[in-house]
Specification:
The complex is a heterodimer. By secondary structure, chain A is mainly α. Chain A has helices at 2-30, 35-40, 52-59, 66-97, 103-115, 118-131, 139-146, 150-161, 165-173, 178-189, 191-207, 210-215, 224-232, 240-260, 262-272. Chain A has a single domain, classed as Orthogonal Bundle (MetI-like fold), CATH 1.10.3720. Chain A has 15 helices and no strands. Chain A is globular, with a radius of gyration of 23 Å. Chain B is mainly alpha-helical. Chain B has a domain at 65-259 and 277-287: MetI-like (MetI-like fold, Orthogonal Bundle). Chain B is 70% helix and 1% strand. Chain B has helices spanning 8-36, 53-61, 64-94, 101-109, 118-128, 133-140, 155-165, 168-180, 183-191, 196-224, 228-234, 245-255, 259-287; strands at residues 39-40, 48-49. Chain B has a two-stranded antiparallel sheet with strand order 1-2. In chain B, helix 3 (64-94) packs across helix 8, helix 5 packs across helix 11 (228-234) and helix 8 runs antiparallel to helix 10 (196-224). The longest helix of chain B is centred in the first third of the chain and has 31 residues, at 64-94. The two termini of chain B are 25 Å apart. The chains are: A mainly alpha, B mainly alpha. At the A-B interface, helix 1, helix 4, helix 5, helix 6 and helix 7 of A face helix 1, helix 3, helix 4, helix 5 and helix 6 of B.
Chain lengths: 276, 295
């Protein structure tokens, strides 16, 4: 009896899993079909395997090639991730290991800004960056990351609290400065948190569409999100095979990171509990 | 803490990036949004004070404002509860002592890693367009599928489904919460002869309400600001049936360059979110339980 119910549960979970990932698998198969076949065949397996979608989509035909968008996305994302981690560690350290006036209210304020909808700050931020001539560059993304992303500061502060204070205290007795304690003792212990933060910030920044849409105007600086949209705005019947192939390419970095660093994902979600 | 405590101001130095960033990129913009909302500001010319004109336009003249508010409310009310119900249901099934839980969790979480990406929106368009995969699948069962994206009755639902599909993060959180429920509670209930539904209502549900509370607030705030799906899949149409608030805001600010009016819209959204969040907070004593003995 019990064994039977278990099998039923497994069958249910597997069927549900298929429904969940079917769209993604279909996208994968569509990238190897011709546009005509995408629009006419239900078969998951392409009749004729063709790499045309990848080749033409990558080259771009009449607009910059997709490779440029990938490079741009990297230029936008990688410094953003690094700066997010550095500022998150520093500020998290400050909040969790030191006593200074207004520490508690400031920390509360910082948490409060996590709940503050970004939309409210959008227009003045745009105007500020416009006034300092930083529009149509990745500067707004980098500077926002360098100023500390509250969500990640909170995450690092939580992790710091989990590390016993006796560790830094004994180093302090030995005459270590606070920055050396951070770099040589705490950062190595903080590695899981650093990975989690880097991973989340990477996939969010990589996929972000709204902010690049506002800040980036020249096609030569487009990240993949904007490049992809360019491709579906073309006239006539959209070349769906190219669009599918390039969508897939744009999804590869998050997918690779997800499957290689899975345990940091779950850890990151559970310790901070945020986002989705 | 005592020893490092002497370094009072070093702590301030460490948090200084955030303090500076907070003042320049949060506090000043926040105040500016309020100030701009009383002006006529087109970027090209300096802002001109117009009193409450923007708010009059909002409530009395702009037909798209109430429309967008309606669309957004429906979207939030449909997608958030559906997403959370799915997340909780799946988490509960996964919480049994089954083999391969990790694999299932990975698969169900997969769509969530792409967030509000353009690629997923494109995929959604390919799946739900008139001759898309969904309708061709329905045709196999001789069902004539509707124009999911072209028919104002179905477009918003189709957009909501994309949100529901990404229930992964909420699910992982619920799952972590369910693992915290001590086994002896279930055993005691079973010995007392409680049925599954009874166990859910009296043990499981009360004990995960803190996570439900948290998920509810975060998902609601996110849902109110959804942009990519509606912008890329349906461009807010047809007949503005998917004209979410973020689209209204984007159009006014960056298409028509009515920065003053857009600031008023942003400010209104903030007030709505504040009201909704505080409503959830206020109502929480009636349904939120914390485990009494911390272990």
């Amino acid at each position: 009896m019990k064994g039977q119910r278990r099998i039923v549960t497994h069958v249910g979970l597997i069927l549900f899993g298929i429904v969940m990932v079917y769209p993604l698998i279909w996208l994968l198969s569509s990238s190897f079909k011709s546009t005509l076949e995408i629009l006419s065949s239900n078969s998951l397996w392409p009749h004729v395997f063709s790499a045309e979608g990848f080749a033409k989509g990558w080259r771009g035909e009449g607009r910059p090639g997709f490779g440029l968008f990938v490079v741009n996305s990297m230029l936008l994302t990688v410094p953003t991730v690094l700066l997010t981690v550095i500022s998150g560690v520093l500020v998290g350290y400050g909040f969790s290991r030191f006593e200074f006036p207004f520490r508690k209210p400031l920390f509360g304020l910082m948490i409060g800004t996590i709940l503050l909808p970004n939309t409210v700050l959008l227009i003045p931020r745009y105007l500020i960056f416009r006034n300092i001539g930083a529009i149509d560059s990745y500067f707004p993304f980098w500077i926002t990351a360098a100023a500390g992303v509250p969500f990640f500061i909170f995450m690092f502060a939580q992790f710091f609290r989990g590390i016993p204070r006796s560790l830094d205290e004994s180093a302090y007795m030995d005459g270590c400065g606070s920055f050396r304690i951070l770099v040589s003792i705490l950062v190595p212990l903080l590695q899981p948190a650093i990975f989690s933060a880097a991973i989340f910030q990477f996939i969010w920044t990589w996929s972000d569409f709204f902010q690049p849409l506002i800040y980036i105007s020249s096609v030569s600086k487009f990240p993949v999100a904007l490049g992809l949209r360019l491709s579906i705005d073309s006239m006539g019947i959209p070349p769906w095979n190219q669009i599918a192939a390039m969508s897939l390419v744009s999804m590869l970095p998050p997918i690779i990171i997800f499957f290689t660093a899975q345990k940091y994902f779950v850890e990151g979600i559970v310790t901070t509990g945020l986002k989705g | 803490m005592k020893t490092l405590g002497r370094h009072h101001y070093v702590g301030l130095l460490y948090i200084s990036p955030w303090v500076i960033g907070f003042i320049a990129l949060t506090l000043i913009p926040f105040i500016s949004t309020i100030a701009f909302s009383f002006t006529d500001y087109s970027v090209l010319r300096p802002p001109r004070f117009v009193g409450i004109k923007n708010f009059v336009t909002m409530f009395a003249e702009d037909d798209l404002f109430p429309k967008s508010l309606e669309v957004t409310s429906i979207y939030v009310l449909v997608s958030v509860p559906l997403k959370l119900a799915f997340a909780l249901l799946v988490a509960m099934i996964l919480n049994q002592k089954l083999r391969g839980i990790g694999t299932y969790r990975t698969i169900y979480y997969l769509p969530s890693i792409f967030g509000g990406s353009v690629a997923l929106s494109i995929l959604w368009r390919m799946l739900f367009m008139g001759n898309g995969l969904v309708n061709r699948m329905l045709a196999i069962f001789s069902i004539q599928g509707p124009e999911w994206l072209g028919d104002a009755r179905f477009s918003l639902l189709t957009i909501s489904l994309l949100q529901v599909w990404q229930f992964g993060s909420a699910m992982v959180l619920f799952l972590a919460g369910l693992k915290q429920v001590p086994d002896f509670l279930y055993e005691a209930a079973r010995i007392d002869g409680a049925g599954r539904f009874r166990i859910f209502m009296t043990i499981t549900f009360p004990l995960i309400t803190p996570i439900l509370f948290f998920n509810l607030i975060m998902q609601t705030i996110n849902a109110f600001q959804t942009f990519t799906a509606a912008f890329v899949v349906t461009s807010g149409g047809p007949l503005h049936s998917t004209y979410l608030y973020a689209l209204l805001l984007y159009d006014n600010a960056f298409r028509y360059f009515k920065m003053g009016y857009a600031s008023a819209l942003a400010w209104f959204l903030f007030v709505v979110l504040l009201a909704v969040t505080s409503l959830v907070f206020r109502s929480s004593p009636y349904w939120l339980h914390y485990m009494e003995s911390e272990h």
